[in-house]
Amino acid sequence: MVVVHNPEIPEIEHVPVGQSKAKAGTVDAVTIAFYKSDAFKKALANDTQDTWGPILDRFCEHCTR
User: Fold this and answer.
1) pLDDT tens digits, one per residue of 33-51
2) Total domains, the chain
3) Residue 43 domain-assigned (yes or no)
4) In a domain, 6, yes or no
5) 59 Cα distance to chain centroid
6) Is residue 32 in a domain?
7) Is the model's pTM score more than 0.85?
């Protein structure tokens, strides 16, 4: 996987350890950071958030079994 910095994509805020029950470096931690980011809250329409929220939640449940 190649990660490329794109200035048009807002940075995702890192959630400090201890502010969440998710362990650092897990899919849960990345998902929580994404939910708190402007990329999710401001860049996506409410309908899109409503659609993707449950999908991401189910993905997290699958990854943390």
Assistant:
1) 888 888 888 898 999 989 9
2) 1
3) yes
4) no
5) 11
6) yes
7) no
CA distances to 23, 29, 32, 57, 65 from 14, in Å:
12, 9, 9, 19, 24
Count of C-beta atoms within a 10 Å radius of residue 40:
19
Alpha carbon 54 to its chain centroid, in Å, reads 12
With respect to residue 16, please indicate whether it lies within any of the assigned structural domains. Answer: no
Cα–Cα distance for residue pair 65/53, rounded to 1 Å: 19
Tokens for 55, please give them: 């999908």
Taking the C-alpha atoms of residue 17 and residue 41, their distance in angstroms, rounded to an integer, is 22
Residue appearing with tokens 């189910």: 58
Helix (H, G, I), strand (E, B) or coil at 21: coil
**d(Cα 30, Cα 40) in Å, to the nearest integer?**
12
